[in-house]
Amino acid sequence: MATMSEHNLISESQARELIEEELKKIGPNLIEKVSQKLTDTFTKKELNKTLESIKESVVQNNLQVSELVTNFISKSSDEIASTNAEYKEHTKSFISEIKPLFMQSLDREIASIKSKQLELDQARQRLLDRENELNTKEANIKFSHSQFEQESELFQNEKQALAEKESAASELEKKLEKNRRALIKDYEELKLRESKVSELEKTATEKTQAATEFLSKLVPPFISSNENLASFFERISKGGSFDGTATLLVAQLNMLNCYLQSGDLRNLNNCLKEIGRAIFSYCYENDLDRSDIPEVLAEVINNNETIQSNGVVIQVPCEGAPIESTWMYDDSTTRGNSISRILTWGLRDMQNGSAIAKAEIES
Fold first, then answer.
1. SS3 of 303, please?
2. Is there a contact between 271 and 306 (Cβ–Cβ < 8 Å)?
3. Pick the residue with more confidence: 173 or 326?
4. What is the band of 106 on the pLDDT scale with cuts at 50, 70, 90?
5. Any idea which of 33-37, 85-89, 141-145, 351-355 has the lowest mean pLDDT?
6. Distance CA 333, CA 178 (A)
7. What's the CA gap between 142 and 137, in Å, rounded?
C-alpha cells in the first residue's frame, strides 16, 4: 500500500502525448523567434543557409528527443508493469484480509435485506388485504350507491306521483267545494222554488176551487154535475181562469142558465146554437174529438125537461158525412159533397122534425 502511494503512474500513450504536446509548444515558437532575429541580421542566402543548419539541428534534436522519449516510455512501461504486479498482489492481500469482514457484513446485509423483504412482504400482504377490503367496501359502496340511486329515483317518481295526486286531489277538492256550493245554491233555489211552487200550487188550487165554484155558478147544474163532462170542465177551469173560446163557451152556458132560471125562453134557440158554435171552436183549438164532447153536451141539454118542454132538440153533424141541405148550411165558397169542418150544430122541432136552425158546416 505504501509503495503505490509513492508513484504517480501514467500509461505509455499518455506519456507520448504529453511529450509531443510540449515539443509542439516549444518548437514553432523557437523557430519563429530565431527566424525573426536572423532576418534582421543576415542576408537571404545566409538566412537560408542558417535555416538549413537549424533544420538539421532540429532534426537531430527531434531524434534525440524521440530516443529520450522512447527510453522514458520503456522505463515507464517497466515501472508500470512492476507497479501493476504490486497492485495486483496488494489487491489480493487486501481482498483476503477484508473478505471475512465483507462476508460478515454481506451476511448481515442479506439478513437485513431478508428481514426487510419479509417486512415488505408482510406490508405488501397487509396492503393487498387492505386493498381487497377497500375493493370490497368500494363494491359495497357502489352497490349501495346504485341501490340509493334506484331508491332515490323511485322516491322521486313516487314524490312526483304524490305531488300530481295532491294536485289532482286539490283540484278535485276545489271542484267538490264548487259543486258543494253549487248544490247548496241549487238546494236553496230548489227550496225557494218548492216554496214558490207550493205557493203557486196553493194559489192554483185556490184558483181552481174558485173557478170550480164560479163554474158551478155560471154553468147550469144539470150540465156541470154530469159525470161524463166532469173532466172536460176540469180542463177548461184549470189554472183558475178561462181563456179564448172557453170563456165564450162558459158565457153561453151562463146565458142558458139565466134563461132556464128566468123562464124567458124567447132567445133560447139562439143561445143553444151559439153554445154549439163555442164547443166546436174549443174542440178545434185544443185538438179534441169533435164526435165526443159535442155529442155528450148535446145529449145532456136534450135531456133537460125545460128544453124538451120548449119543443126543441139539438142535432149534431159528423165530419166526413154527406151534406144534407134539409138541415145543414154549407158556408164554404167551394161546394163539396162531405163535411170537412163543423161550425155549429143544428136545431130541430121535436114534433115535426123540421129544422128550426140549420147546422153550419164547411165542405
1. coil
2. no
3. 326
4. confident
5. 33-37
6. 67
7. 8
Confidence of residue 130 (pLDDT cuts 50, 70, 90): confident
- pLDDT confidence of residue 4: 45
Beta-ladder partners of 314 = 347
Q: 196 is written with which cell numbers?
A: 214558490
Cα–Cα distance measured from residue 248 to residue 242, given in angstroms and rounded to the nearest whole number: 9
Tell me the residue type at 28.
P
291 near 279, Cβ under 8 Å?
Answer: no
**Dihedral of alpha carbons 88, 90, 91, 96, sign:** positive
Tell the burial category of 31 from Cβ atoms under 10 Å away from its Cβ (0-12, 13-18, 19+).
middle
Average pLDDT over residues 61-66: 76
Q: Can you list the domains of the chain with their CATH numbers?
A: 2-122 (no CATH), 219-362 (2.30.22.10)
Q: How far apart are CA 257 and CA 106, in angstroms?
A: 162
3-class DSSP assignment, residue 77: helix
Share of the chain above pLDDT 70, in %: 79
pLDDT digits (tens, 9 = 90+) for 179-207: 778 878 877 776 777 667 566 555 444 55
Cell of residue 189, nine digits: 233555489
Measured CA angle at 235 (ends 232, 239), to 5 deg: 155
DSSP 196-261: HHHHHHHHHHHHHHHHHHHHHHHS-HHHHT-GGGHHHHHHHTTTS---THHHHHHHHHHHHHHHHH
Beta carbons of 288 and 321 less than 8 angstroms apart: no
C-alpha cell read off for 140? 359495497
User: Beta partners for 315?
Assistant: 346
7: DSSP letter: -
**362 Rama class: left (phi>0) / alpha (psi -120 to 50) / beta:** beta
3-state secondary structure of 331: coil
Give per-residue pLDDT as tens, 223-253. Answer: 988 999 988 888 887 766 677 888 899 999 9
Helix (H, G, I), strand (E, B) or coil at 28: helix
Is the distance from CB of 322 to CB of 245 less than 8 angstroms? no
